[in-house]
User: Which sequence fits this backbone?
């Protein structure tokens, strides 16, 4: 076998490759000291980022989002042109009028956390139908819904919760709001990838690379390691 047969050809002289500066479509920078520590690393790599709103208390009003944005900009290194893209945290009682205020303020999306599903989700949605007036306003405004896709039913296996969410929550949601932009965030299952690939054109997804590194072995090998 010729050891050079599969070697890549040298690049032609004078050819260069320029990589576009990326954006981060799902970013937690938290607040206070954590914000100060994390943000410079993000700003060094990314041009923009969609900022998650699950602080304590959560970012549920346009005014809250703009105040948070000011804290983020103040924490940037000198000379940085990083742009934070702000979001609201969806709750059972988020006022419909807040969607228009958010749109006018430059808020780019609203985030759905099922109550109890993840970090700082205790203020999240307990019954999606309670948010339908808000979702209708978002559909009219063209504002995307960013979805943490996971059911919280303790009878559902941890590794099936994304697939069950798609079947029991996302499919009815898409049926009821065909014009709503929906992003299923940090998907980790074949079911989610297949759903998004064949779904309504206003449905998209993000991937969080390090989530894909973990499986049951990571969780249970050497004792329970929930993180």
Assistant:
């Amino acid at each position: 076998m010729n050891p050079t047969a599969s070697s890549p050809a040298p690049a032609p002289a004078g050819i260069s490759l320029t990589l576009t500066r990326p954006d981060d479509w799902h970013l937690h920078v938290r607040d206070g000291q954590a914000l100060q520590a994390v943000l410079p690393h993000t700003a060094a790599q990314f041009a923009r980022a969609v900022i998650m709103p699950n602080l304590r208390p959560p970012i549920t009003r346009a005014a809250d989002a703009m105040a948070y944005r000011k804290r983020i900009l103040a924490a940037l290194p000198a000379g940085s042109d990083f742009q934070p893209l702000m979001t609201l945290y969806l709750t059972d009682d988020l006022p419909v009028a807040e969607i228009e205020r958010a749109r006018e303020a430059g808020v780019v999306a609203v985030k759905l956390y099922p109550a109890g599903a993840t970090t700082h989700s205790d203020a999240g949605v307990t019954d999606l139908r309670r948010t339908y007036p808000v979702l209708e306003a978002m559909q009219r405004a063209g504002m995307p819904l960013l979805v943490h896709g996971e059911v919280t039913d303790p009878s559902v296996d941890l590794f099936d919760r994304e697939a069950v969410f798609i079947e029991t929550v996302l499919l009815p949601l898409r049926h009821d709001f065909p014009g709503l932009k929906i992003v299923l965030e940090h998907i980790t299952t074949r079911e989610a990838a297949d759903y998004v690939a064949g779904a309504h054109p206003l449905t998209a997804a993000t991937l969080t690379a390090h989530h894909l590194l973990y499986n049951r072995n990571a969780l249970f090998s050497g004792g329970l390691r929930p993180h």
The chain has seven helices and eight strands. Helices lie at 32-45, 62-74, 97-105, 132-141, 161-176, 190-197, 216-220. The longest helix spans residues 161-176.
